[in-house]
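Support request from a user on the community tier.

User writes: "When I paste my structure tokens into the form, the page sometimes reloads and wipes my input. The last time it worked, I copied everything first. Here is what I submitted, just in case something in the input itself triggers the reload:"
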């Protein structure tokens, strides 16, 4: 059963909604426009904001459903089992089976994974809310998605320390922050050069 759950998580994550939406709406390959990313931000930039919002929710659901399904099918699983399921969903988004193992940056799907974990590990709810609210505020102030994603990931990690959560959650949140930083290397360079895209 666990092999099936893990494969399903990767398959769910691999669904390239941003690529498909751009194809259906504008008949374009989103990878050849804007930043070249298949995520919600680039879809909003190239195809339209409402389509970007749709892609955000669809990508979010990939991570959320992957974790929820694993919790339902593996009720005696550990935190790490559920987390690994989520990691596979994010990996599917970033290295999609349908796009020759290329994809997005995984922020929306990662948020879905954390939300799914929070349904079982309730203490994650507070860091999650802090991170989500900070993302919204930072975006409203600066209008830069990458900056909001980076800072909210850092605040998620910081809040797990402040709330004195378990060491496994602290490790997870720190690795999550590093992952977001690594996936946004090109954005960080643009931010430092003050050339990052603003909405």
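"...and here is what came back when it finally went through:"
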């Amino acid at each position: 059963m666990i092999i099936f759950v893990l494969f399903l998580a990767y398959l769910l994550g691999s669904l390239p909604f941003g690529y498909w939406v751009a194809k259906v709406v504008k008949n374009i390959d989103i990878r050849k426009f804007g930043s070249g990313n298949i995520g919600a931000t680039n879809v909003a930039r190239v195809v339209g904001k409402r389509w970007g919002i749709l892609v955000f929710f669809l990508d979010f659901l990939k991570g959320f459903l992957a974790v929820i399904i694993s919790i339902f099918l593996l009720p005696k699983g550990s935190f790490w089992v559920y987390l690994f399921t989520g990691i596979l969903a994010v990996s599917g988004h970033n290295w999609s089976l349908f796009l020759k193992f290329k994809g997005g940056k995984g922020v929306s799907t990662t948020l879905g994974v954390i939300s799914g974990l929070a349904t079982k590990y309730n203490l994650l709810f507070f860091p999650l809310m802090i991170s989500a609210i900070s993302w919204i505020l930072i975006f409203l102030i600066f209008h830069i998605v990458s900056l909001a994603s980076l800072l909210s990931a850092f605040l998620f990690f910081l809040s797990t320390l402040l709330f004195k959560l378990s060491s496994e959650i602290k490790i997870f949140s720190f690795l999550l922050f590093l992952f977001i930083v690594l996936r946004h290397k090109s954005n960080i360079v643009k931010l430092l050069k003050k050339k990052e895209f603003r909405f």
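Agent notes: The reload is a front-end session timeout and is unrelated to the input. The two ends are 44 Å apart (CA to CA). DSSP finds ten helices and no strands in the chain. Escalated to web team.
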